[in-house]
Write a structure and sequence with these properties.
This protein is of the alpha/beta class. Helix content is 41%, strand content 20%. The chain has a five-stranded mixed β-sheet. Strands 4-5 form a two-stranded antiparallel sheet. The radius of gyration is 19 Å and the shape is globular.
Length: 158
């Protein structure tokens, strides 16, 4: 009986540690993983576009994306994607291939996907960009700025 209690306690502790470890970071997906996930279950989508040189993108990674409340909401209610806007990768989504046509043509070559989802009328593309989509994959909100933990929690709680 003592051995059984010990096993139950150890299993309970391991489950608790695994659960806490999973909630300690955002479960970022790729576009390919998103497509597979959307086939299984429709969910809201959060996309964060960044670049290695973007100071505010780095700040969000250190603050907002480390916040336990934000991590919990994104992991439970959204499919979350993080993409380097200057990616050199070919990304296939919904049967269409997207590339970075600006490689070698621009100092900051922006991939087709962020240009399609986050371009502003008559304004140059700028980072950071955060896109919110509903369960039907329609854009509901776009933010072209650093989102503090407080502000991001407010947006996610709407």
């Amino acid at each position: 009986m003592k051995n059984l209690l010990l096993v139950i306690c150890v299993l309970s502790l391991l489950c608790s540690l695994t659960s806490n470890a999973q909630e300690s970071k955002i479960n970022w997906l790729t576009f390919e993983q998103l497509e597979d996930s959307l086939r299984v279950q429709k969910k809201k989508v959060f996309i964060s576009f960044n670049a290695d040189w973007c100071v505010f993108c780095k700040k969000m990674k250190k603050t907002s994306f480390k916040n336990k409340t934000i991590i919990s909401i994104l992991n439970k209610e959204y499919y979350a994607l993080e993409m380097n806007a200057e990616s050199k990768d070919t990304i296939v989504f919904d049967g269409v291939s997207y590339i970075n046509e600006n490689l070698g043509k621009s100092r900051r070559p922006t991939h087709q996907i962020p240009l399609l989802l986050a371009s502003k009328n008559n304004k140059p593309f700028s980072l950071p960009v955060h896109i919110f989509l509903d369960k039907n994959f329609k854009i509901t909100q776009r933010y072209f700025e650093y989102l503090s933990p407080k502000k991001l929690i407010e947006i996610l709680s709407q």
